[in-house]
Design a protein that fits this description.
The chain has about 250 residues and is α/β, with parallel strands linked by helices. The protein has one domain: Vaccinia Virus protein VP39 (Rossmann fold, 3-Layer(aba) Sandwich). Helix content is about 45%, strand content about 20%. It has a 7-stranded mixed beta sheet with strand order 3-2-1-4-5-7-6, sandwiched between helices. The radius of gyration is 18 Å and the shape is globular. The model has no long low-confidence stretch (mean pLDDT about 95). Keywords: Methyltransferase, Transferase. It comes from Streptomyces tateyamensis.
Length: about 250
């Protein structure tokens, strides 16, 4: 099973591919969509849950989503058709860093997708290239809640301490680059734990429901390994913040 298919299965029962519950996704979008006739871009949209929710709530809104996962874009297209919003949604199968458009966007999203650009500041630079004057960026990024020990780093994919900042340093980096937070949400420990239980549980459930599938043993192994890395490694150490940003004038 390739990484993209595994991720799609693992996120089956979660509102977005990030540690945010449904109510906080809605709250962030209420703050981010100010008029209802904006043009929105999601860089690394996956199955486009943020865009689908926004389009369904605002009939005057238009959106584009960019992702390298063809399967996720197919699922997004089918969901948009069911919701009756497909005419207002453009889906683009390409790396987020390679997206071009003839128009600018009032809101650019990059939630948990900074790896596609090589880090936090390159992500903000890429978002700014697409942003209309006075526009906003909705950025979701991981950080260290506390100093990571060896178990946390090993569990987090063999990460290095410098791969993430603590939250004050992350916010300082953003503001020094000329961006001002106008709203933000730190995912609670419950949200972080719910996300991990959902991720590992959905993959386990799929493996148990498809015992004869060639990928079932691999899916079950990955779920078990991930759960152990989380519970014995980075639980309580990794955090996630979502910031609504405007460029300092």
């Amino acid at each position: 099973m390739d990484r993209q298919e595994l991720s799609r299965i693992a996120h089956t029962h979660h509102p977005v591919a990030a540690p945010l519950d449904d109510s906080n996704v809605a709250a962030l979008l209420r703050r981010a969509v100010r008029r209802g006739d904006e043009r929105i871009l999601d860089l690394g949209c996956g199955e486009a849950p943020w865009l689908l929710r926004a389009l369904a709530a605002h009939p005057g809104l238009r959106a584009d989503g960019v992702d390298t996962d063809a399967g996720a874009l197919t699922a997004a297209r089918a969901a948009a058709e069911r919701l009756g919003v497909i005419s207002r949604l453009g889906l683009h199968h390409r790396p987020a860093a390679e997206h071009t458009s003839p128009h600018r966007y009032d809101l650019v999203l990059s939630v948990g997708a900074s790896h596609a650009f090589g880090g936090l500041l390159p992500t903000l630079a890429a978002a700014e290239q697409h942003l209309a004057p006075g526009g906003q960026v909705l950025l979701g990024e991981g950080y260290w809640q506390r100093e990571p020990d060896e178990a946390a780093l090993a569990g987090f994919g063999g990460a290095a301490r410098e791969d993430l900042d603590d939250l004050p340093t992350l916010v300082d980096t953003v503001t020094t680059a000329g961006w001002l937070p106008v709203f933000g949400h730190q995912s609670s420990q419950r949200e972080l734990d719910d996300y991990e239980w959902c991720w590992t549980g959905s993959l386990t459930e799929w493996a148990l429901d498809h015992p004869t599938h060639p990928a079932a043993p691999d899916a079950l192994t990955r779920a078990t390994t991930h759960r152990t890395e989380w519970l014995r490694g980075y639980q309580g150490t990794f955090g996630f913040v979502t910031l609504l940003l405007r460029r300092a004038e």
